[in-house]
Sequence to fold (293 residues):
Amino acid sequence: MRRGQQLKVGLVLALPIIIYFFCFFVYPLFTLFQGAFTNGANVFTLDNFRSMLTDSILKIALVNTAYYFLGSVVVEFSVGFGIAVLLYNYTGRLKPIFRTAIFLPLMASPVVIGLMWLLILNTNYGPLDYFLSFFGVPPLDWLGSQALAMPSLIMANGWEYSPFVFLIIYAGLQTVPQQLYEAASVDGLTRLQTFRFITLPSIRPSIVVAFLLNAIGVLKGFDLVYVLTNGGPGYATYILSFYTYVVGFSFFETHYASALALLFLVIIGAFVFVMLKFTAVEEYLGLKRLKEE
Fold:
């Protein structure tokens, strides 16, 4: 087959993914920029971005987003990492059952998980308040309190996505050669020294990838906020993604919502750039090799 014919065949085979890319990535991105830099009369303007400077709710949403991001990442990564290490070292017969139980939150719909946590955190008949009552703790308004609403969201989000971190870290632990542990045992290293000098360096690629993917997922969080608090009480759980939704679909200010979405895209892009700059995640994902080729 000639080269020209090979190119035609390749183009025909790649046509579905090219159409998909333009329909669901290029066109939406184009309309996003168009909406952000125009007004209701479709005239070019920067007023949407000037409005951000005086938008007090946006400032609250940005602070809440940082709070939600840092809290969720710390909870999800520490819990997922800790469970992965514990289960990897556990040798009992119940190991497959524990592993399956940990995966369950990943299989459920975020909306279903949100409804489940609505029941758990219910002040009148929620099991969490019932359990705490044995320790003399009075019923708490988990989702209606300014102080507790965001920690409650972080708790629910941590329960939902800690298994994702667990999955990546646990898979990384499986790749550590057993010969290294045997050599460490012969050399007289303690468990803590073995974990520090052998396990952690060996699973560093998994740690970086898990952190990056988990952090991006947290930044895009929306479903739990919508189901559990709807941004309340007041603006206590307004994060940037939810505020963009409210502006676009409740107030129908689509041009300003497009500008907010563009701001959100810039924040995620900046975070990914920093991660690519200061970690070797490109190498771990195989992107550096492809770039060199």
Observations:
- DSSP finds 15 helices and no strands in the chain.
- The longest helix spans residues 3-36.
